[in-house]
Task: structure prediction
Amino acid sequence: MRREARRMAALFLLPACGLYALLFLYPVISSLVLSLYDWDGFSQQRRFVGLGNFRRLLGDDPMFWTALKHNLFLLSVPTVIILAAALFFAGALTSGVRGSKFFRITYFFPNVISMVAITLLWFFIYNPNFGLLNGLLGKLTGSKVSIVWLDPNHIMAALVAPIVWCSLGFYLVLFLAGMESIPQTYYDAARVDGANAWQQFRSITVPLMWDIITVAVVFLVIGGLRIFELIYVMALGYPNEQSQVISTYLYEQAFNNANMGYGLAIAVVLFVLVFATTAAAMRLMGREQTEF
Amino acid sequence: MPKRQVIARPIGAAARILAAAGLLLAVVGLLLAVAGCSGQEQAARRAGREIEVQIFLGGYGLDFFQEVARGYERTHPGVKVTLSGDPRIIDKLRPRLLAENPPDLFWAFLPIWRLADDGVLHALDADLATRAYGQKITWGESFLPGPLATTVVAGKRYFVPTDLSVFLMWYNVGMFREHGWRPPARWDEFMALCERIKRAGIAPIAFQGRYPDYALPMLLNLFQRKVGGRPLFDLINLKPGAWLHPDLVASAATLQEMMEKGYFQPGCMGMTHTEAQMEFVNSRAAMVPCGTWLKAEMTNTTPRGFEMSSFNYPGVRGGKGDPSVAGISMGYWCVPAQAANLRGGVDFLKWVTSRENANQFARSKDTLFAIRGADRNLARELAPAVAVMRRARYTWAAMMSNWYPELSKRIVDGLASLMSGNISPEEFCQRIEQACDRIRRDSNTPKYQMPVPAEVEG
Result:
């Protein structure tokens, strides 16, 4: 009977395992193999170059390092802002401000919109001629403002606002759930001991929410390394050296430049980077779990 | 009750399995039917009864080509031309090229030089030596020599040029007339004109700054006007050190100076091509650099009564270069080597590029065509472009951008940085030279050469 059950279990697992192998393992292994070839992606002509694509990428391609620098900027600056803002707003909303339900929905709202729609929205906000931002600045300064927010000098800084705007709600909800699960008695006891709001936050909220904060940091780091749609749409499909990130560079090499083998080598490096950065973030933030 | 459930489950599962099997059978049946259809089509193509054509669906639409296909069918009884278009034609062609089951003819923005090199395309040399449709010359002779010269890969021709664009400076005729401005004959007159326009409170030049490659023809024409054609072809052919030429640095400096002096419209580096061209047709800028497609591209948004014309980039006082020379770009049509009806694909391509069809295309789509004599009765706005092409001692095309997409990207990025004032003209040239050097050193990248026309000066 147990054997029968095991066989049944294997039978039921088979389709899922098959699909996983077909849709994940096979493409990953294929990509790994094809990254060792010089291949245009259009013909059957492939030339084995061994680690040549990787040598060129890491040793003779300044654009890769420029793109990586942009990724590091986009995974660090927005991460700090999002974490700080989400913790602040979550703290404010749990302290019982009026209309907290309304604010929860409002903050979460950008999460239900697709990334492409969000990007287009911000594309219009940044428009130098009729954009909301220049219009607002014009009203404040009393003169016509024509800052080109998406020109090569401003584009990286301009990308921070939409990233924060569309990500904040998710982390806010995550932190709210964490904060609401901390027993109120801890805060009451701290207050009796004379702790102020900052001390309560530092000594009770943060330690008890550390695991959630770690998860949030890991998500943000992965998001910062994999970012694609925002850049691609904001740059109208042609990111330049001021806005290129690794995933857009991968796309450019594989699909625009017909360097599929090289593009796949970038994909492999990106995979390793995401894996290593995630592991490093988890290790750096790992501390003994505080139970309550 | 539990007993009934036990009995009910297998029946439900069996029903579900039967339903799933039915669905699977239906899907398999459908796939077989589709495969059968495509098998029949394949047989018809192999027998020469059908020609499959796939083209990029963009501003030119499909209507003209469908009309041409019907004309072909009328003159070739028993042959059917199946023509389809898609804005994302590359996504459709990629799996078919990989499966070695391509259409018989295609027009798409693919890396065709690389495909030619990989043996994916049919060499057209023998076909170009056959008689052109409706003329007493060969098909090869019916093409304009400059555009046809761009199709050589390792001594053979794997595609032919079709629609043709000349890069010119467009101007607002009404505005020029009102202020008494005239198209300049020399570069210093051009700079003085920009200054006069700026003083009149109008932006001299609208610019498509989100796509800074619109400035490349201006830069390279200025360079050619200064030094002649040979150094220009050296740039195109990636001759070592060619991009470090002092006159190229000086030309890049002129471009940057024009930006700094406010000759390009403020804020232009954030504008797309349509936004910048809207500034031009709405008379907020006096000129715009663009190819001959401008008139067709802006037809629906050009205000009634707006008149546009164009001039070729002016010569340089004391320069060695002939100012009649023009920068061009064109589209290419190809016949895959694995096409089921290769002869049909070639013949239909000859038909599309016959002088009559080419002229009809140019007239109906407000563009030029790379066929001799296809420039009759075009729109008034294209008259200067026709005159430029007829007068041009020779033409050049920025082929390095087609051959090496990575280099093209570095040039575009460099132009963006140069025009934004982030790098010096020297740094711009050094960066491109470094990118060229990487290509020269990369043994994986096939190398191409543009034959230097006999008429080239310098």
Q: What stands out?
A: The longest strand of chain A covers residues 37-39. The mean pLDDT of chain A is 89. The radius of gyration of chain A is 24 Å.
